[in-house]
Amino acid sequence: MTEKLIIFDTTLRDGEQSPGASMTRDEKLRIARQLERLKVDVIEAGFAASSNGDFECVKAIAEVVKDSIICSLARANDRDISRAAEALKPANSGRLHLFLATSPLHMEKKLRMTPDQVFEQAKLSVRFARNLMADIEFSPEDAYRSDPDFLCRVIEAVISEGATTINVPDTVGYAIPELYGNFIKNLRERIPNSDKAIWSVHCHNDLGMAVANSLAGVKIGGARQVECTINGLGERAGNCSLEEVVMAVKTRKDYFDLDVGIDTQHILAASRLVSQTTGFVVQPNKAVVGANAFAHASGIHQDGVLKARDTYEIMRAEDVGWSANKIVMGKLSGRNAFKLRLQELGIAMESEADINNAFIKFKDLADRKSEIFDEDILALVSDESVTHDNEQYGFVSLSQHSETGERPQARVVFTVDGKEVKSESDGNGPVDASLKAIESHVKSGAEMVLYSVNAISGSTESQGEVTVRLQNSGRVVNGVGADPDIVVASAKAYLSALNKLQSKADRVAAQG
Ligand code: KIV
Ligand code: ZN
Q: What is the pTM of this model?
């Protein structure tokens, strides 16, 4: 029988550690539901002990997602572990994921602990966790830069204490595929009880090799779990990308000979949802989910694909959710058709009121834009004003005047805690004037560290999707806004970033 490769998604934990990618509870719930639709085996829903907000998110996901194992990260101490176990109580199947650094550098400089102390703590923490839950994953953080002899000692001990999954993180993305694969193979061969646990890979992308390293860990090392994120989201250069690793194993089944349970038709919707929620735009030439991933520009290629698609295509676009950019809806579409399309796109709204709210926005958009694509619907439901009536700032309207040779002027109407305010400013351009108008009232003092505009569906008729990244007192957030008018989209993105700055609680960050 073919063995299974377990897909462990950490978009909501490691992915969220990217600067500005922090998500609200509702956003995390929406992504978790999409991951469940994808049939991800394990969802790492957060790091429950890092903040009350994270605790609530893990708990909320454990309450609603029933088909995937729900996991919480925890440092290897009793308090973190108890907190994680508490958050996971509502889960059908829960997993505690304990981590403790084992590399000389991390032990000495970060933990200020001796190897013997780390060994003891690893052992005792797994013993403690095992009394609370049966499914225990242990990660020796920075494993790839750890001394293999010491690592063997620690891993053998934690397996004896009941760890059921052993993860081997390349925390800083330093590994090379062949070396990483052999590193895991060697550990498995040397540790007497290694067959009592499932081995897992967790690779960061600092040298652009996270997917290659993960696959080598599977092929050479015999790992049977891959930790990954949608779009490769993650700190610094990111994590191993779920869509790439899954499609590699599926497309090259002849080589890997492993089964993957992922329902790949939901990949694109998951990619768009994560990109629109976090403001991390997917590059056009990104494998599997980039806008050009299945586009053939050269005449020779187009001709070949028309004659026989496998001349230049190794995967079918439909298999990962591409639907040839078809027009899905228009102004005559009714509420039921809209609701059905939301379901098909994997968007589960919390209440009928949210659906009504989204439908009103949809009608409004359809009045201004004759063709509505899936991308428009995804952008619309990511728009905070659809699902978040309780945000501090909300967009109402905007007017601006710009003319060659004149300094642009803008007037923005928005709500602050439900009360409408009007604010005006000039600026270098209409976008600058609009954002200055908002800032002159709000006085957040935040620094803008990124502004980007992207056409959602490729033509000038398209909605513009704007990402604004703000930084204030060491906190970084991304706001996203979409509208056919890019000045309005910019104002929405700015207000969304202000809301996130407002709500982002300080938390303890996991390393890596
Ligand atoms: O990269 C890493 O080491 C991690 C661990 C916390 C698993 O994310
Ligand atoms: Zn990591």
A: 0.87
pLDDT, one tens digit per residue, over 22-50 is: 888 988 999 999 999 999 999 999 999 99
Residue 414 DSSP SS3: strand
Work out which ligand 1 atom sits closest to the CA atom of 17. Answer: 8
CA of 467 to the centre of ligand 2 (A): 25
**CATH top-level class of 393-502:** alpha beta
pLDDT tens string 207-226: 999 999 999 999 999 999 99
Give, to the nearest 10 degrees, the angle between helix 177-190 and helix 210-219.
Answer: 40
Taking only Cα atoms into account, the Rg of the chain, rounded to an integer number of angstroms, comes to 24
Domain locations along the chain: 3-278, 294-321, 335-382, 393-502
Question: What is the spatial distance between Cα 214 and Cα 169, in angstroms, rounded to a whole number?
Answer: 10
User: Is 3-278 assigned to CATH 3.30.450.40?
Assistant: no
Q: In residues, how long is the chain?
A: 512
Q: Which atom of ligand 1 is nearest to the CA of 97?
A: 7
171 lines ligand 1 (CB under 6 A): yes
Tell me phi and psi for residue 23, to 5 degrees: -120, 155
Q: Is 141 in the pocket of ligand 1 (CB under 6 A)?
A: yes
Contact 81, 55 (CB under 8 A): no
The pLDDT mean for the chain works out to 91
Q: Which atom of ligand 1 is nearest to the CA of 169?
A: 3
- Closest residue by Cα to atom 8, ligand 1, is 512
* CA 204 to ligand 2 centroid distance, Å: 6
**3-state SS, residue 353:** helix
